[in-house]
Design a protein that fits this description.
Helices cover 29% and strands 42% of the residues. By secondary structure, it is α+β, with helices and mostly antiparallel strands.
């Protein structure tokens, strides 16, 4: 197992269409985990969610989250980012980043479609700012 440096973990997390597994805290303290699409802005992780979803409500109430991104093929690698979130309802920002996220996962030709679909009232832009990062590659070597 080899620790990844800052540039390496960002490159790993941004590669291809890997999804993230987002962990939030429910009102009763239980964990909640949901898969998400995301993009990076420097070290920050950006994603969209509905204001009325469980993760949206959790993030607005308790501004802490963790995100795991992994490669499930040998020799296995992963990144776990934990930190605090800021939530925005600014529709221009929500739409801009929704298009970037849609472009990553569905292709550049569909980016604006996803921006329009997710850049609407009731959708949130969430920015996870890392307080801690654990990133390891070649776990099985």
């Amino acid at each position: 197992m080899v620790a990844m440096g800052a540039g390496e973990w960002r490159e790993f997390a941004a590669a291809g269409t890997r999804t993230g597994k987002l962990a939030t805290v429910r009102a009763d303290g239980r964990p909640h985990i949901a898969p998400i699409w995301f993009v990076l802005d420097g070290d920050d992780i950006l994603f969209n969610t509905g204001a009325d979803t469980l993760k949206g409500r959790n993030l607005r109430r308790d501004g802490r989250a963790s995100l795991c991104v992994d490669d499930d093929t040998p020799p296995y690698s992963f990144v776990v980012v934990s930190g605090t979130v800021t939530v925005s309802e600014d529709l221009a920002e929500v739409r801009r980043w929704a298009a970037a996220i849609g472009g990553r996962y569905m292709g550049a030709d569909r980016a604006e479609e996803f921006g329009r679909r997710n850049g609407v009232p009731g959708e949130l832009l969430v920015r996870l700012t890392p307080a801690g990062i654990v990133a390891e590659r070649d776990v099985a070597d």
